[in-house]
Amino acid sequence: MSLVEFLILIVIAAISGGIGQSLAGYSLGGCFASILVGFIGAWLGKWMMHEFNLPVIFSITLFGKSYPVVWSIIGSAVLAFALGVITKGRQTE
After folding, report:
1. Opening angle at CA 82, ends 76 and 17, nearest 5
2. In the predicted model, what is the mean pLDDT of residues 44-51?
3. pLDDT tens-digit profile of 1-29?
4. How far apart (Å, rounded) are the C-alpha atoms in residues 74 and 23?
5. Quick one: how far is CA 11 from the chain centroid?
6. CB 3.0–4.6 Å: which of 1, 36, 75, 83 could bond 44 by disulfide?
7. Within 13 Å, how many C-alpha atoms sit on residue 20's CB side?
8. How far is the C-alpha of 67 from the C-alpha of 59, rounded, in Å?
9. pLDDT of residue 92
10. For residues 9 and 15, what is the distance between their CA atoms, to the nearest angstrom?
11. Phi, psi (5° rounding) for residue 26?
C-alpha cells in the first residue's frame, strides 16, 4: 500500500466516521475519533454485508481496491450509537 492509497483510505474513513456519528446522534471526539470510528465501522459494515448476504450499495474503486462507502457509514453509525450508549457520549443536536 502506497502513501497515497493510505491517505485516501484515511480520508474515506474520516468522512464515513463523521457521517456515521452524525446519523447515530453521538459525537465521540474530534477528527482522530472519526477516523477510528470510520475504520472500525468499515470493518463492521463489511462484516454485516457478508453475514446477511446484502448487496454492495455504493462503493468507490481506487487502485484496484473497492471501498463499500455506504456499509462503512452504516457500520460507523452502529458503532457510534453503541459506544455512545455505553459511555454516555455527548449527544449532538
Report:
1. 20
2. 90
3. 788 878 888 888 899 999 998 888 887 77
4. 9
5. 11
6. 75
7. 37
8. 5
9. 59
10. 10
11. -125, 135
pLDDT for res 6: 83
Residue 23's SS3 state is helix
Q: Look at the block and give the residue holding cell 452524525.
A: 22
Residue 53: which residues within 8 A CB-CB, separation 6 or more?
Answer: none
Q: Is 59 exposed, middle or buried (0-12, 13-18, 19+ CB in 10 A)?
A: middle
Q: What is the pLDDT of residue 48?
A: 92
Residue 59 confidence (pLDDT) above 90: no
Average pLDDT over the chain reads 86
Query: Domain range spanning residue 85?
Result: 3-91
* Mean pLDDT of the 20-48 span: 87
Residue bearing cell 484496484: 64
For residue 54 the three cell numbers come to: 446484502
Alpha carbon dihedral 58, 35, 48, 53, in 10-degree steps, equals 20
